[in-house]
Amino acid sequence: MVTIWTPDLSRYQGARYKALAEAISNDILSGVLSPDEKLPPQRRLADALGVTVGTVTRGYAEAERRGLVNAKVGSGTYIRSSGAQSMGDYLITDKPCGFTDLTVSLPVDVGQHSLLANTLQELHQQPELLSRLLGYHPEGGFSHHREIAAQWLSYDDFTPSADCLTLCNGGQQAIQLALMSVCQPGDTLLAEGVAYPGLKVLARQLKLKIIPLSFDSEGMLTESIDGLCRQYSPRLIYCTPTQHNPTNTRLSKARRESLVQAAQRNQLLIIEDEVSAVLAQQRDLPLAAMLPDQVFYISSCSKSMAGGLRVGFLVSPPAYHCKVSAALRASCWMAAPLMVEIACRWIKQGHADKLLNQQKKKLRERFLIAKTLLAGLEFHARADSFFVWLSLPDHWRALDFVRAVETQKIMITAAESFAVANYAAPQAVRICISAAENNEVLSKALLAIKTLALSTPDTELSLF
What we know:
The protein folds into 3 domains: 9-79, Arc Repressor Mutant, subunit A (Orthogonal Bundle), CATH 1.10.10; 87-110 and 353-454, Alpha-Beta Complex (Aspartate Aminotransferase, domain 1), CATH 3.90.1150; 125-349, 3-Layer(aba) Sandwich (Aspartate Aminotransferase, domain 2), CATH 3.40.640.10. The chain is 40% helix and 14% strand. The chain contains 16 helices and 17 strands. The protein has a 7-stranded mixed beta sheet with strand order 4-12-11-10-9-5-6, with helices on both faces. Helix 2 (42-49) crosses helix 3 and helix 7 (171-182) crosses helix 12. The protein is globular, with a radius of gyration of 23 Å.
């Protein structure tokens, strides 16, 4: 007898049809359900779950409304080839007209466009350089660019070598290159239970399995690593120790030491995502400085300068640098030379530091606004972070709250979008306070969010 997909709906609260849609979403993200896979016939699934056919019908309809599935007349219901599978579903969306989009953690506008215009004018006066920038470059970048980048990344006792630094097209590609240089299809990696969604997209594309790690206010619970290594034999662990996305937690010094020791015991490689760390008011020594032979260190220009300046920095363990270069050649040959030149000019001319200081000032302003307007709710925010992690009152579920907020023409992100594999996402939302057009727009949005959070949701409970 052929076994059909039969989710455990007892894991979910609320109406059964919504629980079914949630189960479809979770199993897509964890890889249990694949693109173009056909879901069970409604009557057969209803029998397997012990619910009515109407419940399954409504569940499939809800999943289709969320863009998870396609219903084909006379054929059945299928997991979409794209949609929930694409990074855009939980990172970048087309903002409807009149909406305030607080889903993307981008730098505050501090006049980057004017700086870019001046830089392009400078380059216009250097035709020979422009001609070189239009040609092919070494895959890791020119040595003088890598040296500028290495100096930009250095602080305290962390001085990365330019010889182990690869310039790439943003932090997302840096993660991809690290994974490609280490993993084969079918391999396993560890990550915090809620993590940067781009990691899930890459893992799915590279056919990798992610095992979630629990966490608390000090970051990931590192004591579980040894047991997970014995059980799953992971190749590496992905973490965001300084400015965790989306919870704003920071890995304590004790946990950092524990993580490094666990990695040494288990010969476990680490991807240290420090893209937002450059904004941190207080920075601990990176894992890459503590364990340079086992840590891939990642940073980029997206948070300190501009999201569209697609320049990433990947500092590799020496033994993996050549593999990273090969992965870069295989994917795009090289980082975009013009982008790299602009970023390095901004660093060398001091503009990057000025932008960084302006960002810190603006973020502190917005933190104080959020701290004041969200008072009375449970949330985790920092004066040096792009977002607020709002834990919802007991009467709200995150996905329902996001939809309710959308009725006010405001867009935020539910914790479910960050949940890894089968990790039970908390009932929380991420609000990117940096994304608002200005402080007034942010204030109006936060007031609306607070009002909704304190109100009772419209109950659309099913009796099926």
